[in-house]
Amino acid sequence: MKTDSSIPAPNVLIVDDSPANLELLVGMLQDRGFRVRPVASGERALQAAQSEPPDLVLLDINMPGMDGYEVCRRFKADATLKVVPVIFISALNETDDKIHAFAAGGVDFVTKPFHEQEVLARVKTHLELRRQKLELVDNYRRLKELEQLRDSLTHMLVHDMATPLWALDGHLQMLEMDSAKSLSRAERNNLAEARAGTKRLRQMTDEMLLLSNLEAGKPTLNLEACDLVALARKAIAPSGRVELAVAAPTMIVKLDRDLIARVLQNLLGNACKFSPENGRAQLSLTLAEGQLRVAVTDAGPGIAPEFHQRIFEKYGQVTIGSGCRGTGLGLPFCKLAVEAHGGRIGVDSQLGRGSTFWFTLKG
User: Fold this and answer.
1) How far, in Å, are 219, 337, 349, 355 from residue 257 at the CA level?
2) Which helix (H) or strand (E) covers residue 142, if one does?
3) Residue 224: beta bridge partners?
């Protein structure tokens, strides 16, 4: 086996109580460049593996003392050794023997008398699978580190933006009050749009900071008895495009008023955004089996089923109608806020038939 001189040769542990089998396997693997450690019992195999974990194990079944099944089970019960692939090599060839081998944690089974090329092929295959798995785990670890770095930088940036945005909004408000009479209608409209944009940026920064705190499990919910119907009426008032359907004139539930208000604003904002200009959305509140269900239904293009989970992930890309777009942070925020209340959130949607975003709270 030709290997890069900078990469250590694969370390194979061979466990067999037959000196002839050990000699044959050791010679076969060493000739191909493997680093081989032969042992004649299960107890010695565990000692050798704990001293230096192997890359792969070739394991006999029938051995005095601890048999191969038990050796494999011990490997899989060890936090360090459980990832090591175990190939059984045995004269046992009944189906039950193979079933027991795989149940113990083995990845393959070779029957004695074995063919040299078959053993080599299986060893190379499982070593390559192990290499790919370790590479995947390492890539995932690095990806999570990069995501954490990105989130930390985003949090710092947003935190630093909050103060100047408050100042900008305050100055725009003062300008709007002091200069209202001296400005033309077009100028007043421009000023109103500037204030609306600044307000939206403030809301986005607040939301991102809240999202960061929710992910870290930091916020303590400010629970109070609230009328969810009144909260819903307040949320739909600005749009004028949302119908309210309620099962009762009042629905009292303990919740964090500010967080759930933001959830409603996000869901309603998306419903209005993706509905046609003359389309209307609906907000419905129902009570069943001690749970309040809040649902926002739009007349938009719909979302394909394969994106129903991804849409609640940060920075996820999903297909909405005929286009692919990012979901931003609104829906991930809604998910964390609802789950912080012990509730659930989801979406029912089909392409061309609109969407219903819903969440539940304990009544």
Assistant:
1) 14, 11, 28, 25
2) helix 116-178
3) 255
Largest Cα span, the chain: 103
Angle, helices 19-30/116-178, rounded to nearest 10 degrees: 60
In a 13 Å sphere around the CA of 6, the CA atoms on its Cβ side amount to: 0
Tokens representing 80? 């360090």
Strands, E assignment, 163-241: 223-227
Q: In this predicted model, what pLDDT tens digit does every residue of 126-146 receive, in sequence order?
A: 999 999 999 999 999 998 888
Q: Is the Cβ–Cβ distance between 79 and 46 less than 8 Å?
A: no
Of all residues in the chain, what percent carry a pLDDT higher than 90? 50
| SS3 at position 346 | strand
Residue 253 contacts residue 292 (beta carbons within 8 Å) = yes
Residue type, 331: L
pLDDT band for 293, please (50, 70, 90 cuts): very high
CA-nearest of 169, 141, 126 to 12 is 126
Contact 61, 97 (CB under 8 A): yes
Measured CA to CA in angstroms, residue 38 lies from 84, 120, 164, 252, 312 at distances of 16, 16, 69, 71, 52
Angle separating helix axes 185-215 and 116-178, nearest 10 degrees: 140
pLDDT in tens, 45-80: 999 999 999 999 999 999 999 999 999 999 999 999
Assigned token pair, 278:
């003359």
Tens of pLDDT, residue by residue over 227-261, are 999 999 999 877 778 899 998 899 999 999 988 99
Strand partners, 359: 294, 345
Whether the full predicted model's pTM is greater than 0.70, yes or no, is no
